[in-house]
Design goal:
419 residues; alpha/beta; 6-stranded mixed beta sheet; 17 helices; flat
Length: 419
């Protein structure tokens, strides 16, 4: 019953004190957590709360540690709760996190060094078992250095095979995963079974040009050279008429397509892309300002009766404006062994906007006070319009369209997924 009262009290406190600061809410949480310990309630509930804060170098962390140290019986059982968390861990990330928590608990004097070593040994043993039984999938992208048992040959063999499989199917592999796989293949030797396993799936790996140079080339130089030739595409960008700023902006967009897209300014390129600006017309609608006035009868009944003097009016300033941008680009591409690419990008963007400000109440004697509420549904609809949009934002959107068009060029589309 004490636990039920705690949960109900916590839910009530958080709902009634929604305007409290986070620190105030945490203070209430600590008070209720300590009440459980003081009244002999289930310690596991207090552990769940205090374990969230206990390792922080903050006021909340210090308060959590003070509560733990204040109740000797609870502190004595603290290692048992940590062991239970270790036993229930079901992901590699959770095992790594628990390793950190146990070390922090020892450093903060919440558990003894002997308990720390015993729990870390238990974590290591369970990690080894979970790895062999496939209960938890460990990869080279995990911090497996924390677990000595995972460095054993059998454990390493399992992690290697699992990591190769993940690397072969991942669209955006982690650097640690790539590094671990190729370092293991290198250590085993270019003619080993490990190396053969990697070579079998190497073509399907989504590796960047940098990955190929940094991790693959030292182990498989010939294969890395061939893949670099297949995946890296040198592109020459030409802007007509010549426009240095437009060139830099489009080039910046193209570099985000793939690290394997290499922009060059001279020499032969696999693909030459020409962007010709045919039209760029900007029209701005001048800003217009007007005051909107509601009589008291037009204001929602509750607000009018509670927040407005008799016969007062509600007023605010409405500002409207707009931008119109008409543009057209001719995008062409050619290269050895590829069909010519020709795309006309043409559109017109119209953006109207409105904003409301200076909401106020004016009484019949001319006095004015600030209004902190929305007058009625009409004001809500009026003031929910689009916010002002700058020409720079529209220009950036257009350049995104230009980049997307260039990305459709077959030679570039082929490398686009290789981020």
């Amino acid at each position: 019953m004490l636990i039920l009262r705690f949960v109900l009290a916590l839910a009530t406190a958080l709902s009634l004190n929604a305007c409290q600061t986070i620190d105030d809410q945490n203070s209430d949480l600590f008070s209720m957590t300590e009440d459980i310990l003081k009244n002999g309630g289930r310690e596991s509930v207090s552990y769940r709360t205090l374990n969230i804060f206990a390792y922080d170098e903050t006021e909340n962390g210090r308060r959590a540690r003070n509560i733990i140290n204040k109740y000797p019986s609870f502190k004595k059982n603290y290692p048992s709760y940590l062991r239970a968390d270790v036993f229930n861990a079901d992901t590699s990330a959770r095992m790594v996190d628990l390793h950190r928590i146990v070390r922090e608990a020892s450093l903060k004097d919440l558990i003894s060094q002997e308990d720390e070593q015993n729990i870390l040994k238990e974590i290591d043993r369970l990690a080894a078992e979970a790895n062999i039984n496939n209960k938890i999938d460990f990869y080279y992208s995990d911090d497996i250095r924390l677990f000595p048992s995972l460095n054993a040959p059998e454990a390493q063999s399992i992690i290697f095979r699992r990591s190769v499989g993940k690397l072969a199917t991942s669209n955006s592999p982690d650097n640690a995963l790539i590094k671990g796989v190729f370092e293991k293949a290198r250590a085993s030797g270019a003619k080993s079974q490990d190396a053969a396993m990697v070579l079998a799936v190497l073509p399907s790996m989504k590796l960047t040009a940098e990955d190929l140079r940094k991790y693959v080339a030292p182990v498989f130089p010939e294969q890395a050279k061939r893949l670099l030739e297949e995946r890296a595409v040198e592109v020459r960008l030409i802007i007509e008429p010549e426009d240095r700023l437009l060139y830099e902006d489009v080039a910046t967009k193209l570099r985000t397509i793939s690290p394997n897209l290499i922009l060059i300014t001279s020499g032969g390129a696999a693909v030459t892309v020409t962007v010709k600006k045919l039209q760029w017309e900007e029209r701005r609608e001048p800003e217009r300002n007007q005051s909107i006035v509601y009589s008291q009868g037009d204001v929602s009944l509750l607000a009018a009766s509670l927040l407005m003097p008799r016969n007062a009016s509600y007023q605010y300033d409405l500002t409207t404006g707009g931008i119109e941008l008409a543009y057209a680009f001719e995008i062409k591409a050619n290269g050895k062994g590829m069909p010519p690419y020709d795309h006309l990008l043409r559109n017109k963007i119209i953006r109207s906007w409105r904003s409301c400000s200076n909401a106020r109440i004016q009484n019949v004697f001319g006095g004015i006070q600030r209004a902190d509420f929305v007058a009625n549904d009409h004001m809500r609809r009026t003031c929910n319009g689009d916010l002002p949009v700058s020409v720079d934002r529209l220009r950036d959107n257009v350049l995104d369209e230009v980049a997307r068009s260039i990305e459709k060029i077959p030679a570039i589309a082929r490398i686009a997924p290789l981020h």
